[in-house]
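Q: Hi! First time doing this. I have a protein sequence and I read that you can turn it into a structure. Is that right? Here it is:
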Amino acid sequence: MKLRIICVLLIVTCVFCGCKSNSKPVKLQLKSISFVADIKYNEISYSCDCTIHSNKNLSIVFKSPDNLKGLTVACNSGLCSISYNGLSIDSADNVLPENFFVSNFNDVLKMCDGSELIEQKHSLYVNGKLNGKEFKLTASPTGLPILLTIPDLCMRIDFNNVKVKNK
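A: Yes, that's right. Below is the predicted 3D structure, encoded as structure tokens:
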């Protein structure tokens, strides 16, 4: 009889202890990471090696298409510079198109860094608006980015081989 009571008490204790959630909200990790971005923008596909540095600056090196291979774009403190085949333009914002996807990408990353992720149906994401256009940034359970979509700009960026860099 005593053994049954002890077993019942242990089971009840395990059930109630297992119901308590100790998990903290997951925050989006958007600094000190590198990744390959597969970008679809206005029916054109790009592939880029990207790094978001510890100071949140973004560096992009185009791998494809072939006519852009080697083009480097660096966004530092809100200003973008570009370099290609030994030529470079600092403060290139004046020569870049208004909806240049790298500028939009950089703006979304800066907006979302450190945001708490919303969980819905086993998916983690951040929603927001950039210049009136809605975006959704989906992340893994560790807070690393997976996918960015901005439907009004016909933009989709898949984050592949995401790696945390040593700080």
